Amino acid sequence: MYSLFRSVTSRIQKSSVLSKLLVVNMIFIISLSCLLGFNYVYLKNNVKEQVLETNKDFLDQLSGNLSKEWHEIRTAIYDISVNPDTKFLSIHPKNSRTYQTELLTYKDMLLESNLKLPFRAQISVYFPNQDMVISSDGTRNLNVFYDSLEVKNGLESCRCLHESNQLEQLYDFNKMILFAYRLFPEGYIFAQVEKTELLGYLNSETKLLDNVIVIGDQTGQPIVSTADIPSDAAGLEVHAGTTISIEGTTYTPIQKVSQSFTYTVLFSDSLLQERLQRTNGYTFGLFAVFLVANLAFLLVNWSMFKPLRQLASTFNGWTVPSATRNEFAIISDTFRKLNYATTSMQMEMTEQAVILEHNTLLRLLADEQYQMKPSVRQSLQHKFQSYMLLTLIEEDRYGRATDDYAEALEIVLSSVYPFIHLHAHNDKRIYIVGCSKAEELEELIAELLENHASTGEERYVLCGVSNAHTRLEAVGKALRESLDAISKHVPDPDRMTRVLRYEEWNNDQEAVLHLSIDKEQELVNYTLKGNSDAIHHFFDKMTVKTLKHMTFEQFRNMLRYLHDLLLVMMNSKKLNPSEIWDVAPDFNHTYHLMYLYNQIRKGYIDVAKRFALPNTPLLEQIKAYMEEHYANPDLSLTLIAEQFSITHVYLSSYFKKQSGYNLNHYMHTIRIHAAIRLMNSNPDLTMKEVAEQVGYSNAGTFIRHFKKISGTTPTQHAKLQQS
Question: Is the pTM of this model over 0.70?
Fold first, then answer.
């Protein structure tokens, strides 16, 4: 062995400098190739396994959380079914002296139960012998209850809920899921869960993993999904090798079946895997650049190695011949490419670390018992030794989400504190900021809100700040504190931007307040009788005495309650929300209280005006109004819509559908026919005088429409009448 080693070393010593360089480079290239190949295979397989395990853990956690929520709803239904008050009220005579008192107590019990339910679920109880459905927001007969369901589900519902003989029944409607529970000997309990609330929860869970969540029934038919599922994939049986294509992306499903639902998670290559593959690409790019540079350095032409031979021969004398300009250019370009590839790899690895930190914090928000990887924990603890959570809500004067202040806030935070943007939903943004002094952070944000001039109009901005925390596992508690800082403060209508610090609130404070039965009946009477002035006074009085003392959460829930009450009255008149509002109030994503308040107030006033109109069909009322006011030059689509308390868009489509005419064309027809009658009875009038008396301020416009409708000009018509 020793002799073989000496033989090889002696041959190397006797070989030329070029041969030595070639041997050294080939050994280095082979070693680097093996190292890169091993790195590529390890990363590829390890990432795939981690993606699969992460999604399985995610499905187990998600199905467990949702099963727990469903169990809470079922438990609440069971508790109500065995409650003695339920049995007592079902057989209690409606004309009894104590009936109203018992009914109010029962409604309060339902309200208290609803406030504890997940996904804002609402429970109602139906007593057939009294033909009455009792909910926390009031009582109504069965037909009105079904009408309300049709309004909420776009006319898609079932009027057979009270006919099922099964103990439990699940109904899947357009915009909600409804549980029906049979009471014995007769009666039903209904639990309504809006799909938007459930989708909001699912979207928050799947934000980072870039997967699709599907909740289906026992047969696998989708009920709620975070993406549109193709019809050929509905009810698909999941087994090894199954894939589903959605919008050009192939997903692999993982499924879990519970007692009531089927939970399916569809996942593809996540952002983490894509970035790791890109990192491998940069690694092989670096290898290719290095290989080409070495080959170019060795094989371009013999003159390039002449300085190297001179360097080897004169090395002992420390004399270095001058290199050519071409050699320095090649070497400089090679090192520049190597530096670029190295920098790109560093950037990619930094982005991967940020994604892992982000993913870990999201998991901690959902489960504070989540076990973090040691490397990720160490990195997060270094950044966030002490931290606070910010919740930012930013909207324009129409309640639409904007991001002017959010962008400015991120720029300011990046220059002062470490932070991570955790959530970016349509309605709010959530940040974790490495800061230990709440006063400094509050002052920084307040200064930004005061000095930042948003583009265009004024913005409605609320920023909730949690207490300072040191344990990473408390990030979920910090999030609740930042949300409570917003929901528990008393709003000031005159302040559009506010920074709100978390305080210890009274947990016994009610989140939902309702009008008293007398006040509710008073508002309903004003609306049904068409007394819009009384409604003005009612809302002004309520603002002074009630709303100004409510917290943000109470104010918003009161507006939601008034909105639902208005929808019930609109349904009795068969009014569509598009007749009243260009854009209906959206309580799921809008937080601008004064915008919502003004929308609800306008809705009540416009509905009252509609109730005040005579029973004559709306089309006939519009025609009569135009016949009476055609001489008004300001008569227009907008003016007529305001007169009948409807939107101009609805007026235009309604008139076209009912009469077959365009409204503007019909208005010009009335004016031209009036002009013809006027010209026949008063032939001495000039064209300008005739035009002004029938509502045209411009004679040219009058002549153009006269010819278009009658087929002749006004002058030709006058001559025909004279002849």
Answer: no
